[in-house]
Amino acid sequence: MNPLGIRDIIGPIMIGPSSSHTAGACRIALMTRNLLAAEPVEVEFVLYGSFSHTYRGHGTDRALVAGILGLLPDDLRLRTSFDLARERGVNIVVTPDTASETPHPNTVDIRVTDVNGSRIEVRGVSIGGGAAQLTRIDGIDVEVTGEFNNMIVYQNDAPGVLAHIASCLGSRSINIGTVTMHRTEKGGDAFTVLEIDDEVDPSTIDCILAFDAVKSVRFIPAASASKPADAVVPTLYPADAQARFKELDFSSAAELLAYCDRNGASISEAFSQREEALMDARPADERATGRYLAHALDAMRESARRPLARPGKSMGGLIGGEAARVAALGERGVARGAFAKLTAYALAVLETNASMGRIVAAPTAGSSGVIPAVLLSLQEAYGFDDEQMKKALMNAGAIGYLIARNATVAGAEGGCQAEIGSAAGMAASAAVELMGGTPRMCLDAASTAISNTLGLVCDPIAGLVEAPCQMRNASAAAGALIAAQCALAGIEHIVPFDETVDAMYRVGRALPMELRETALGGMAACPSCAKFKGIG
C-alpha cells in the first residue's frame, strides 16, 4: 500500500454524491478503459449488490459511463456522461442484477467491444474513499489496485515470459515493485500483473510483445497520475529520504505530539514535513502540495456557496434548498454569527454533493460538509488568510491520517461515527490551531468531538447520501466548534486521542451490519421511510 498522504485524507476532489458509489465506480471504468487497445463502441455494465440497488440515486451508472469515456472523477461532465456517450457513438447498456451474490457489495462487470471488434470483460470493486480494484479480467482472477503504475501482460503460460518482461523493463531502467501471475491452468492463458515505478513507452511494449507467448500488453497509470498535473507521486525514495520519512511517519498521536514538543512545531507543520518527506523532499513538491490545498479550498468554497445562490434538488429528491432557507433566516434564528454561517455551509455542501456537484471528500463524501463549514465560517468571522486556511487543512489531514491508519473512516466498516465523527475531530483540531491553540489542545478537541459522536450509526434513507447525512454534517460542525472552544479554554479530554480512536473503531466493529451503511436499520428502517424505497 502507498503511505497515506494529504490528498488521500483531504480528497479526493470529486463529483458527488458518494466516494464509493460514484468516484470509485468512475475509477473502475477508467482502469478498464486503459486496458482497451481502441475506442469502445459497445459497453454493458452489470451491477451487483449495493451498486444494483442504489445506482440511480448515487449516479453510479453515470460515473461508470464517464470512466469508460476517459473522464476523471472530478469532471463535471460526469453528470451528462450518457449524452456524451451518444455523441461519441458509444452504445451503453446498464443491467442491475439484484439476485446474484458477489464477495463485495460494490461490484460491477464491464463488457466492452471496441471499434476493432475486440472484446474484454472486467470485474471491478469499489473499496471505499474513491479507491477501486480490478479483480477479474476475461475470466482470470487478478488484483489491480491502481495505486501504482500497472502493466498487465496477457500471455500463454510458458517458460521464459517473466524473464523476458524483466529484461525489457530492466534495459530501460524501469523498476519493478511487485509481480503477480494469474493463470487458468498450467500451460493455459495467463495474466502477469506488474506494479512499476515508471510509465512505459510504446518501444517498451513492442519489446515485450516480441516474445511469441505474449498476446497483449496494457498499461494502467497510477490513480495519482489522474490527480492535478502538479501532484507528485511517491515512488522509491533515496536512502536519506527513506530515513527522514521513517522519522516522520507518525503511527500514533503520541508520536506526533512528541515530535511537535521536541521541535516546537504545530501539527500542521509536522504533517507538512511528513508530506515533504513522502514526496521526496523536493522544493517543487512542497509548492505542489500548496497548490493542491489551494485547489481543495476553492472547491470547498464553491460547494458551500453555490447552493445558497442557486438551490436545487438532490439526485434522490430527499433534500434541496435547506441551506438557502437557513441562510435567509439570518440573525432572526437562534444561531448567529459564525454558527449561523456554519449551519448553512454544512447543509449546502451536502446539497452540492447529493446533486452531483464537485466536493472535497474530507475524509469522505458523506461527511464532506463538516470541515468546509467550520473553516469557512471561521475565516469570515476572523479574517484568516488562505495560507492560514491551508495550514488548517494540513492539521485536519494529520488527524484524519491517524484515524485512517489506526481505525477507519468508512461508514460501511465503522458506522457514521467513522465518517462524521472523524470529520468533526479533524475540524475541531484545525479550528484550535487556527485560533492559536497548542498541539495538545488540538488533540483534546479532536478527542472530544469524536467521543461526542461515539456509536453514531450509518443509516442512509433509501441508501442515499442525503438524509439524515445532511443534518448530521451541520450537527457535527457545530459540535466541532464546541469541542474547540472547550479545548481552547484548557479543558483536557480525559481519554487520550489514540485511545479515543481505538474506542471508536471497537464500537464501529461491534455495530450490527444493519447499522453500517446498509440502509436496513436506524432511521432508514422507520415506517415513514418505506415510501422512498427504490428511488436510488
Automatic annotation (TrEMBL):
Keywords: 4Fe-4S, Gluconeogenesis, Iron, Iron-sulfur, Lyase, Metal-binding. Coiled coil: none annotated. GO terms for molecular function: 4 iron, 4 sulfur cluster binding; L-serine ammonia-lyase activity; metal ion binding. The keyword Transport does not apply. Belongs to the iron-sulfur dependent L-serine dehydratase family. Its EC number is 4.3.1.17. Residues 150-222 form the ACT domain. Its cofactor is [4Fe-4S] cluster. The keyword Transmembrane does not apply. It comes from the Bacteria. It catalyses: L-serine = pyruvate + NH4(+). CDD domains: ACT_LSD (cd04903). Pathway: Carbohydrate biosynthesis; gluconeogenesis. This is L-serine dehydratase.
